[in-house]
Amino acid sequence: MAKKKAAKKATKKTTSAKRADKGHDITATALGRTTDLDALDKKTLQLIESTARRVEVSINKRVLPELKFPIRSLSNVEYDKSVGHFELGKGRKSRALTVNTVRNFAQTLRLMAVSKEMVENDDFATKREAYYVSKNWGDAKFNEQSESDGVMDDIEALASLDGLSREQLRYFPEEHGGSLAGNLVVIDRDPETGAEIRIDCTAFGTGSYSIPHSVEHLEFETDAKFIIAIETGGMFQRLNNHKFWKSASCILIEMGGVPTRATRRFIRRLSDNKKLPVYCFVDCDPYGIANIYRTLKVGSGNAAHINRFFCVPQAQFLGVTPQDIIDFKLEDATHPLQTVDIKRAKDALKNDPFFKSHKEWIKAITALLKMGVRAEQQALAKWGLNFVIEEYLPKKLRDKKSFLP
Amino acid sequence: MAKKKAAKKATKKTTSAKRADKGHDITATALGRTTDLDALDKKTLQLIESTARRVEVSINKRVLPELKFPIRSLSNVEYDKSVGHFELGKGRKSRALTVNTVRNFAQTLRLMAVSKEMVENDDFATKREAYYVSKNWGDAKFNEQSESDGVMDDIEALASLDGLSREQLRYFPEEHGGSLAGNLVVIDRDPETGAEIRIDCTAFGTGSYSIPHSVEHLEFETDAKFIIAIETGGMFQRLNNHKFWKSASCILIEMGGVPTRATRRFIRRLSDNKKLPVYCFVDCDPYGIANIYRTLKVGSGNAAHINRFFCVPQAQFLGVTPQDIIDFKLEDATHPLQTVDIKRAKDALKNDPFFKSHKEWIKAITALLKMGVRAEQQALAKWGLNFVIEEYLPKKLRDKKSFLP
Hints:
2 copies of one chain form a homodimer.
Chain A: H1 6-22, H2 28-31, H3 35-60, E1 66-70, E2 77-79, E3 86-88, E4 92-96, H4 102-121, E5 125-126, H5 127-133, H6 145-160, E6 171-172, E7 179-182, E8 185-189, E9 196-200, E10 208-210, E11 219-221, E12 226-230, H7 233-241, H8 244-247, E13 250-254, H9 261-274, E14 278-281, H10 286-298, H11 304-310, E15 315-319, H12 322-327, E16 335-336, H13 339-351, H14 353-356, H15 359-371, E17 373-374, H16 387-398
Parallel strand pairs in A: 5-6, 12-13, 12-14, 14-15
Antiparallel strand pairs in A: 1-4, 2-3, 7-10, 7-13, 8-9, 8-11, 16-17
Helix pairs in contact in A: 3-4, 4-6, 5-6, 13-15
């Protein structure tokens, strides 16, 4: 399928061939990648090959083959406060090859084959592209992307049991990550030559670094003391233009609403590798709290099989907190809670195991409902455009006990 | 309002003071900026001061003051094919100071005062921030952002007559621009020191450069032959990861749907300054054609006062064209046109002066309606993930006559 370019072809084929020749014994250096990444690529290939081999063995024995996947639903989710995110339970569903399942069975194997080819060629596909690739599969083609997404989610859930994410299967999200500025050198590699590339995130002027789709291969150097994850582009630009990252010795990351997978994974890896605390700075409303912050910190209920990779359990809620509305006299810069806000807040209190397990959050959300208002991070501009830089953030950062868990 | 930071304060105040002392005779070097930018800053200050002075003179004469703004509606729009975008007509509305208009009158003057302060301090505000700043104005505060937006649109329309955009008034869009990779050095300046910063957009590995909110001060160095403006993040990432910008000697810009103001202005300035053609690569559907491409090229009907800054009249439509669906055998990777698509296409043919004035577009849209399908740029993946790089784009770029106007 993926044809290769003349120049590139030679090297790639050699790499591919070497890999094939040596089975799983290829070395990291042969690929010019980091050891870490290679170990995961090997694991991915092993998973795909062993799955395919089981099917082959069954067929050779004249036994109808069967594929087993974790059940992806809330009924098969386990929550442990000490782990900090929803995890997959032990429930499995089988997909035996029958007249009814033959198309889906073939599609699953073909998508895994595409995955194998992409790992070997160091390529990737978006979910949308994967759907279109199937248009050349004759009867096995997908009619709707929802079909290919479903099959991919099954494969992803299967891979997650081996500690592999969809990105390792080379299916990348459509959206890349947010923007970043601050005291950080990102170490990437040249996609052609594998040579190291050092990206100094203090050197973008009024612009910034845009986080790529896949961040597994990135490494970091930093002397920053913490990461601030910011809801809006406007606030990010203000902090960046005034070089808040320099005066506060930190890294600014713009989430742009609910953070994408790439943004979450980037923050998680950066925070893990460099032992950096993560402070979340969003609007004081049920969306900022229960959608943006909660997704960043513990993941989401209906994607339990990926939370372990994408959540940032070390994240803390810097603000804007309900108490900030009072402490910073923002009452006349608030807006009334809408019906949807109230519903979301009540849902959080009643049904969300994360909020229910933290009395600070129960208190804060209850207070917000009682006040009946919401306050955006821009509301701080009431006291001057740069009040947020000169007063709000320094004061909050001096008193980290005011952060919510 | 905008308090300044201790360290920065000294320099800024000096600059501000110098400016005030010398009136409009300050030199570019005193600010450490480019001549171009300074000329515009001076013009902005002149506009605000002369407007305020007229009001002051009236009041001193005991005459009720009056402000005059261009009428912002389709009834006051002129279209000239040779100009290539909608322009403001000569219609003006007056806002005299009366009991009924006093609040709005005061708000207009205060927003202009904020603008003046921001130019002097080299600061900026988003529209949302500007709304919040008013919360400290007592009776003159805005109750809804729609109010402050309306007043700002009036000021913007007024400024546009002097060739000034909202960005020059220091009101920046909430959203920054898209991502960029390729043969380009962006020359920015350090927001603190004014020192030149050179950003090499070939040096970001799998990541990319994120275009800032305001791009007026940027300069460029490039040996690229053209710019490709791309609809989706997925396609941008594919072309970037495979370094298409290197093999084709070009600059890749991700629009992410309908391009933001910053993206449009960036493309326009880069293309103007470096005489680079702009090729637009979007889905073959009425949204890609009539929303994304048309907005990029000629602007929009209800924002005629800003089109002159933000449209890219030199843009051409590379694809995916309706003819491409046939030429590249994509029929089985298409989807039926939805009702909304059909409506949008028919509207374009019937009401849109841009499409109506180009027979190639009338033919193409008519053909699309007849085929009854739409094709996404990812549909090319039917022939392999990198078919777009190895076959489609090279073939299209060899035959630029196949581009639509």
